[in-house]
Amino acid sequence: MVALWLYATVDGVGNGRKLDRLCREHDAYKWLCGGVTLNYHTLNDFRVAHEQALDELMTRVVAALTAQGVVRVERITQDGRRVRASAGNSSFHREATLQRHLAQTRAYIEELKQQADDEPAEAARQRAARERAAREKQARLEQALALLPELRAAQDNPRNSKQQRQKPVRVSSTDPEARKMKMGDGGIRPAYNPPRRTTGGGHGIRRGGRALVGVDVVNTPGTTAWRQRMQTEAAREIYKQRAAVSETINAETKCRFGVRAFAVRGLRKVRCVVLWMALAYNLLHFAQELLRCEVV
Q1: What is the mean pLDDT of the chain?
Q2: In whole angstroms, what separates CA 209 from the centre of its chain?
Q3: What span, in angstroms and rounded, lies between the C-alpha atoms of 287 and 203?
Q4: 3-state SS record for the chain
Q5: Residue 211 and residue 69: Cα distance in Å, rounded?
Q6: Which of 147, 242, 227 is nearest to 195 (CA)?
Q7: How many CA atoms, within 13 angstroms, populate the side-chain half-sphere of residue 296?
Q8: How many CB atoms neighbour CB 89 within 10 A?
Q9: pLDDT tens digits for 155-196?
Q10: What is the predicted pLDDT for the residue at 294?
Q11: Among 58, 255, 88, 38, which Cα is nearest to 188's?
Q12: By the 8 A CB rule, do 246 and 212 touch?
């Protein structure tokens, strides 16, 4: 499963259904499956169910590269790129609307429960699927309502303008942890901001080589501390090195890996997708070095 998702990430495949089809039709993916039958549910669940294990594997890869002298962690460059979330602008609602939708969803679940238990097998299966989808919607609405106090507190920050503080707080009913952000084209859309921590090359590394040594995902672009550091001339000189290191990774993950929008919802699942991308990037660029490492 790890090999499948790493190969799929390098191949720009980020959809469980597409990977399921490739496992049945494409020789490389069939070879990786080794004759084992998989389905897209199993593939999608595995992709987002092991955040801690993926983080540990990322740590081991970086440790192996460092131990071999391939990478020297002397200066870390952090850069982010806001990526479209799997939510629409119209999914952001005020508390009253969220409460109304939650009441309607709970009533619908009760209605499904009261339907006859002696219905045909196919009808029972469809009813179970509708009930499962309704329960997932209920969980998202409850999460959205639970996040409202935190968002209100952030909005009441004195650093915000009076107009910003008076705006009604809205949360997405589709992906409650997504936040509206200003994108590269100037538009405002629901997104996540996955910062990437990058180090340049070390001894014997080929030209242009650089490693991803850490990733995270945030839904608020904090820049206050960065602005304070950038007041010094030394910091501005160091910052000039960022473009040669970080921007190439942003371009590669967007164009080669297809990280243009997240198909998953929630910070935890988005972190898993970003970790797969970071692992795939390092394996793609340091495959020969990693094959010589005993710790991986």
Answers
A1: 82
A2: 24
A3: 16
A4: CHHHHHHHHHCCCCCHHHHHHHHHHCHHHHHHHCCCCCCHHHHHHHHHCCHHHHHHHHHHHHHHHHHCCCEEEEEEEEECCCEECCCCHHHEECHHHHHHHHHHHHHHHHHHHCCCCCCCHHHHHHHHHHHHHHHHHHHHHHHHHHHHHHHHHHHCCCCCCHHHHHCCCCEECCCCCCEEEECCCCCEEEEEECCEEEEEECCCCCCCCEEEEEECCECCCCCHHHHHHCCCHHHHHHHCCHHHHHHHHHHHHHHCCCCCECCCCCHHHHHHHHHHHHHHHHHHHCHHHHHCCCCC
A5: 12
A6: 242
A7: 24
A8: 12
A9: 888 888 888 888 899 999 999 999 998 887 889 999 988 766
A10: 60
A11: 88
A12: no
User: Which of 50, 26, 14 minimizes the C-alpha distance to 254?
Assistant: 14
What is the tens place of the pLDDT at every residue in 231-244?
Answer: 788 777 777 766 66
Length of the chain: 296
Mark residue 35 as left, alpha or beta (left: phi above 0; alpha: psi -120 to 50; beta: remaining).
left
* Burial classification of residue 216, based on how many CB atoms lie within 10 Å of its CB (0-12 exposed, 13-18 middle, 19 or more buried): middle
The pTM for the full model equals: 0.79
pLDDT, tens digit (0-9, with 9 covering 90-100), for 139-149: 999 999 999 99
Reported as a single tens digit per residue, the pLDDT across 70-114 is: 777 666 666 667 888 999 999 999 999 999 999 999 999 999 888
Which residue type sits at 148?
A: L
